[in-house]
Amino acid sequence: MDTIPFWSLWYFHLPNFILAAVMYTMLGRVMLGLIMDAESKNYIWRAFCAITDPFLNLFAKVTPKATAPVVQWLFGFVWLFWLRVALLYIFLLMGAIPRAGL
After folding, report:
1. Inside any domain, residue 31
2. What is the pLDDT of residue 100?
3. Beta strand segments in 1-102, E
4. Contact criterion met (CB below 8 Å) for 97 and 9
5. Which end of the chain has fewer CB atoms < 10 Å from its terminal CB, N or C?
6. What radius of gyration, in Å, describes the C-alpha atoms of the chain?
7. What is the average pLDDT across 61-85?
8. Measuring CA to CA, which residue among 8, 30, 27, 7 is closest to residue 19?
9. What is the dihedral sign for C-alpha 36, 66, 22, 88?
10. Is the pLDDT confidence value at 56 over 70?
11. Domain of 38?
């Protein structure tokens, strides 16, 4: 079976990796948000907020305004998950990445 080098598909892997990193950082923010104060000066908390806030601002346009912040973060996690699925589907439709089993 032929193997496909990782870097030959960089145009898929790089955006997918970035979305995955932000997605799991969002989940980490949810978990940390259960024990941290929202106004905490902790550098780890501030890093989680700095990474996820730009995405949360985008998702705020399609997320109900009456939701609690932790629910908005969970919605952000779900939106990022579906964005990754859509990215994979688009690349598969374009034939830009190989299909499994072919």
Report:
1. yes
2. 66
3. none
4. yes
5. N
6. 17
7. 91
8. 27
9. positive
10. yes
11. 12-94
Residue 1 lies in a domain: no
Closest CA relative to residue 81, chosen from 96, 61, 59: 59
Q: Rounded to whole angstroms, how far apart are CA atoms 93 and 102?
A: 14
Assess contact for 73 and 52: CB atoms under 8 A: yes
| Within-domain flag for 82 | yes
**Residue 81: per-residue pLDDT:** 97
Average pLDDT, the chain: 89
Rounded Cα distance, 80 and 63, in Å: 13
pLDDT value at residue 2: 63
Number of Cβ atoms within 10 Å of the Cβ of 97:
17
- Angle of CA points 63, 31, 21, to nearest 5°: 70
**Is 2 part of any domain?**
no
DSSP state at residue 7: G
Backbone angles phi, psi at 50, to 5 degrees: -65, -35
Q: Would the pLDDT of 102 be above 80?
A: no
How many structural domains comprise the chain?
1
Nearest to 5 by CA among 101, 102, 98: 98
